[in-house]
Amino acid sequence: MNSIKKSNGKMRGERVRVKVFKDSDLMHKFLNSQPNNDWKINETLPHKNGHYAYAGGAWHNVKSLDPSILAHI
User: Fold this and answer.
1) How many Å apart are CA 1 and CA 11, to the nearest integer?
2) To 10 degrees, the CA torsion angle through 53, 8, 42, 35?
3) Extents of the domains making up the chain
4) Are 6 and 16 in contact (CB under 8 A)?
5) How far is it between the farthest Cα atoms of the chain?
6) Is the pLDDT of residue 5 over 90?
7) Could you tell me the strand order of the sheet in which 40-41 lies?
8) What is the pLDDT of residue 48?
9) What is the CA radius of gyration of the chain?
10) pLDDT in tens, 13-64
């Protein structure tokens, strides 16, 4: 799978955005059009598009978490 990730850079309350591409040409075209190098190859997170937060020892999609849990992450 061709996926990349971008972190918000915070130690506490880290959120990670994941983008998935069908092939490496599309991924590299996207990366070459970016003005910065914030995106990195995704090797550890789930390979599905979305925003992820670390809770309870695992990465979870933000959409699947309860808002009261997100407030404490």
Assistant:
1) 27
2) 150
3) 2-70
4) yes
5) 40
6) yes
7) 40-41, 2-7, 15-21, 50-55, 58-61
8) 92
9) 13
10) 789 999 999 999 999 999 999 998 899 999 888 889 999 988 878 888 988 8
